[in-house]
Sequence to fold (424 residues):
Amino acid sequence: MSKTSLKLITALALTLSTSAASAFAKTEIVVDYAFGGRTKVYQGIADAFMAEHPDVTVKLRVPSNNYEEGQEAIIRQSMVNQLPDVHFSSYNQYPDLVKRGLVANLSKLNEGQPAFEAQGYIPAAMNLVTMDGDVYGLPFLTGTPILIANGELVRKAGGDCKNLPTDWKGYTDLAARIHALDPQIWGGMITTNDDWQFQSLVYSAGGDILTKDGKDIGFDNETGLKVMQAIDAFVKASGMQQQTYTSTSAPQSFATGRVGMFVNAAEYLSLLSGQVGKDFEFCTGVFPAIDPEKSRGTPVGGAAAVILSKDVEKQRIAFDFIRFATGPKGQAILVDGKGYPPVNSAAYKIPSVKAYFEKNPLRAPDVAQVPDGMPWVVFPGDNSVKIVRTIRDNVDRLLQQNVTPEEALKDMTTEVRAQMPAAK
Fold:
């Protein structure tokens, strides 16, 4: 064989091997999310997506402890070019990422395809991810704060598990009666790991989180004071231990059987079922409004899937991934793992999803509240995360009975305004 022929054969072999390697090369997308307790759900969705897309690898990052920490991490990573391709951001945090120019416009990526509502997305959920007429994320999980009660204690106090209080006064009165059963039993407790419950109370009193122009707070008024007075009255009536309770620690305290009621995300019902199911019955109800006639609904919490990649090809794959996660198959995995109401109506047609909610009637209040939910408001400016902490910290001071409702409101509003752009 001539040297020329040998060179041609070698070159051809190299070309074929390179082509084969390219054919089997996988595109990797990196996904970021919060709360380690949801890892199984995210991994399940990633595995199901990769099974249908063998040319794609979905890599999950180590989760943040909560949405606020995740938000701060994303902002830091944006400064050093280390952003993930997909990020699951809370509904009240992603708008800040949009304003920073970090989020891909999904309306543009969806051009030439059916409108999102035609793809099954619930309009109320799509409202949560739409800014100035454009869609910047897809709703992934949604939930509202619901009332969770110890059925045994409720009945002993003269209450009815099938007719739990729907107003804050009734909630407070029942908490007082439960506490009266035994000084060592708390009638209830309030969680403050963020401002979700505070916003719920403001809406339930008919108030606003921000003014119509979005430049000032909307609760430095009689409504805001009513909220603080309602919190203070509940603490005094319920006998709750004066300390901070988060959405994670509150269920643990409730599981001891020494707490009558509390408000939390329906997600934690799965955890409670395993902890207290054999010890006592528990029941659920809608969020107790301060003024049922003026109540505007509850803020919808949860996460939206947003795309942070600037690479055109990765954006296309990331778009396929988040549509899978928020579509019927992904939502079925989410329902099975955490019980959140699907954001895609097509998911309700899946037998396992229908069966889940039929077997879990305790989820009914959450399912009922989501369609009429209010937005979980994000505060303007660069200090939105700090403002959430400011609200939380001042509510904590009231829970610990270190201040009066008037003092807590005054300090909160003063500090929040100092962190908003309008104050500068």
About this structure: Residues 15-23 have pLDDT under 50 and may be disordered. The domain at 145-297+379-423 is CATH 3.40.190.10 (D-Maltodextrin-Binding Protein; domain 2). DSSP finds 18 helices and twelve strands in the chain.
